Amino acid sequence: MTKITIFLLILSVVIAGLLSFYQYLYKVKNKSTLNLFLTFLRFVSYFTVFLLLINPIISRKTLETSKTPLPIFFDNSQSINELGASENISKVFKALSENSKLKDKFELQTYLFDDEIYQDKALDFKGKQSKIDQIAKDIKQLYKAPIFPVILVTDGNQTQGSDYIYSFQSNANVFPVIVGDTTEVEDLKINQVNVNKYAFLKNKFPVEVFVQYNGQKSISANVSISENGSVFFKETVSLSASQKVKTVTALLNANSIGTKKYTVTISSSLTEKNKTNNTKYFAVEVLDQRKEIALISSVNHPDLGAIKRSIEANQQRKVTILKPKEVNDLTKFNVCIFYQPTSEFSTVISQAKKLGLNAFFITGKSTDFNVMNQSQTDLTFKMANQKENYVASYNEQFNLFAQDNIGFDYFPPLENGFGSIKANSNVSVLLGSKINRIEVENPMLCFSENGANRNAYLLGENIWKWRIESHVKTKEFTQFDTFMDKIVQFLTTNSAKKSLVVNHESFYNSGEPIEITAQFFNKNYEFDENAKLAINLQNKTKNTSKTYDFLKGNNEYKVSLDNLEAGNYSFTVTEKNSNTKYSGSFEILDFEIEKQFVNADKNRLEQLAQNTNGKAFYPTNIDALVDNLLANDNYKSIQKEIVKKSPLIDWVWLLILLAIALATEWFVRKYNGLL
């Protein structure tokens, strides 16, 4: 308290005493016990009121002892069972968690971990992933001590996350307790398989297999890739102490549509402790992107053969040459190429429009331009009877798709009718026209988009000469064929926008986090912030289903599907307000990554201990670990002096005292007839 407060308190005592004396003892001849008692009660009342008015601050000092934190993390993943270390971990858990000396010195807390960290969970060794670096992230947030030890009881085999060796903060001294067999044994392992998740029908797709060998002698091993018991690839590799890693590359055929599940196996004459890691699975979804194209012409022309060969250079395209009168059904085709339309084309063009097929119109000397004007609205033709040769002029501003100038300006001229060709505003021109090096307004190659409908127009015949000229310059047809493929790609792509877009993989490995994302757009194709999305997931193997709600993220909705068993699943995503639906499927492959290890990762755990000024131990010398921690002077308890200040007006008992004093005085005076 300050000097002023002390002075006021002394003054309060004097004033309270004087007032009480004046009221009960001043000029009183017979000072009875009753007067003295009433004087005391009045003094208490006055002094209590003065105390409340002055309201001094009362300070109280207490000492608080903070022990150094000691978090202990126990590995609860499947690999502990696979390495036969579950019993050791259980013994270490009991030895450390029940050690009274550690509890006296440290604030001891025990945790279990696999891909997450748990505080109130029993050891069961069923975790399907190990994420040791998550421990480093969590203790950084939980513990702020200047320096503290961390005990990590694990085999050191991590399946997820970043490198834990460099993840721990500088004030955390990590003491790994290494469980599991550390003896190096001979072992063959498929370390990794690299493959694209998608392949196109009738194409070949590459598979890259990384093989690893632990051992000292030279061996040979067979690497094979099979599907449903049929072997599609086999290769023998040689491994030794100096050549412990080999990469095997295979090209497999995509012969049928759908998700194809393959098995990669490595075998040898070795007697291995763990053969689980000799097999690995992968899956590839084979997509059918073949496009059927009808090339319709009433004339024979070298262009037809050149167009067919050029388009079919992409194995996903098939061109069928038809005469207009031979066309009965266009439903199996994706695009129609109308080569030099005449009056015979009216019916087939009308049929293509009804089916919503995109069209590629090619004109020339035999074209009936009245039919062209009647068949489309993108270009207006006013043509004379004479013919003209047109040279191409490349338009650098074209942006419907990426197309380089492959020398269009130097290609031979194309022959077409002479006249005026006017393009509407929705037409994009890739190639303009020149006559005798003079630019004219007529387009030569242009494209249009009308909603979901797309058309292309090549105004001139003899494009076969372009293909030959491209080959003369580059010694191959690739440049020209790619150019034609981009035209077909433009015409076969559906530009219609979808209101519900769902993103998912075709397959997942068992134990992997499964996340499906979705976007829902309103009628203006703007992201709808208020959509209500749900997914109904069906396990086709067990014939069970479950529904989950999506959670809104940043411009997308997400749902996480955890702890799903291996098998085939189908699902339907529904937007509840509009009842818009999307259906899909995926497969979960039976691959348990925690069963791939044959040894504890002793080297990495020792490196972690060295980097964090800790020390590695084994289950057999836990007592040495305890002694080390107890003897370390860096881990001292911290005693803090805590000063608590409270104003006197907060003391309720003062008010109670005042009330008692006043009430007692009143009753005494009343009883003795002094009122």
Automatic annotation (TrEMBL):
Gene3D superfamilies attached to this UniProt entry: Immunoglobulins (2.60.40.10)
Question: What residue ranges are annotated as transmembrane?
Answer: 6-25, 37-58, 651-668
For this protein, the record's InterPro entries field holds: Ig-like_fold
Q: Which residues form a coiled coil?
A: none
Q: Keywords in UniProt for this one? A: Membrane, Transmembrane, Transmembrane helix
According to UniProt, the name of this protein is VWA domain-containing protein
Identify the species of origin: Flavobacterium ponti
